[in-house]
């Protein structure tokens, strides 16, 4: 009886110890889980959205429209982001106009021999030197007139590059949410147009047509 009573007492102590140690273990596991959760969230925020297994460049915080942390050459560490945003916006707009121009010239041509081809590469070679000088002169004048708008620390490139008075009024009347949506749409369309133009040039060089 004494032996069985001793065993029963040890069993009660073991059960009591199990109930007493439960909350401490739970608190420790919760603390460990919360810390691991925070560390995993921190690790996720430090990774690039475009390439999840690559670290996000430190300068690309995701605040700029279209910023998904894609900078494999780490150019953002050495280039002013206000200038980079304005340059991308201008290149995107030019590329979008170029895409439209490529499709139009497949069906419509000006009444002159140097304009009668639909081949992108042949079209460049058919334009005389004087024509190329005029084109580059116009580009140079346009770039010089907008230097103060491009080389600027202001991160809102759209506010700097809106030259149409009606467009400026419309942009100013937009809410912050509407501006963010419009900016993201233009950035994405511009990037797609730049890739499309490069694809058209490569395809024309290989196959002779788009």
Q: What brief labels describe this structure?
A:
single chain, 210 residues, mainly alpha, 8 helices, 0% strand, disordered N terminus
**Beta-strand percentage range:** under 5%
Strand segment count = 0
Give the C-alpha Rg.
Answer: 31 Å
Helical region count?
A: 8
What sort of overall outline do the alpha carbons produce when their principal axes are compared?
globular
Low-confidence stretches: 1-42
On the 0-100 scale, what is the average pLDDT? 77
User: What's the end-to-end separation, in Å?
Assistant: 98 Å
- SS class: mainly alpha
Q: Which series of helices and strands comes N to C?
A: HHHHHHHH
Task: Walk me through what this model shows.
The chain is an all-alpha fold and 210 residues long. It has 8 helices and no strands. The chain has helices at residues 2-45, 81-104, 120-126, 129-145, 147-150, 157-161, 165-173, 176-207. Helix 2 packs across helix 8 (176-207). The termini are far apart. Mean pLDDT is 77; it is low at 1-42.
Q: Helix and strand layout, with pairings?
A:
Blueprint: H1 2-45, H2 81-104, H3 120-126, H4 129-145, H5 147-150, H6 157-161, H7 165-173, H8 176-207
Helix pairs in contact: 2-8
Summarize this structure briefly.
About 70% of the residues lie in helices and about 0% in strands. With about 210 residues, it is mainly α.
């Amino acid at each position: 009886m004494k032996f069985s009573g001793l065993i029963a007492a040890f069993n009660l102590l073991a059960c009591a110890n199990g109930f007493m140690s439960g909350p401490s273990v739970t608190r420790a596991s919760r603390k460990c889980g919360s810390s691991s959760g925070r560390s995993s969230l921190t690790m996720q925020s430090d990774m690039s959205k475009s390439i999840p297994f690559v670290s996000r460049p430190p300068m690309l915080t995701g605040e700029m429209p279209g910023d998904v942390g894609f900078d494999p050459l780490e150019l953002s560490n050495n280039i002013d982001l206000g200038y980079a945003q304005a340059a991308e916006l201008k290149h995107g707009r030019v590329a979008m106009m170029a895409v439209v121009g490529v499709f139009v010239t497949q069906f419509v041509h000006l009444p002159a021999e140097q304009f009668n081809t639909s081949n992108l590469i042949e079209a460049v070679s058919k334009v005389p030197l004087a024509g190329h000088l005029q084109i580059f002169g116009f580009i140079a004048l346009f770039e010089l007139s907008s230097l103060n708008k491009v080389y600027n620390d202001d991160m809102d490139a759209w506010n700097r590059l809106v030259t149409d008075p009606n467009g400026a009024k419309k942009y100013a009347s937009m809410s912050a949410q509407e501006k963010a949506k419009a900016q993201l749409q233009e950035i994405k369309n511009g990037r797609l147009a730049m890739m499309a133009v490069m694809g058209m040039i490569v395809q024309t060089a290989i196959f002779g047509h788009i």
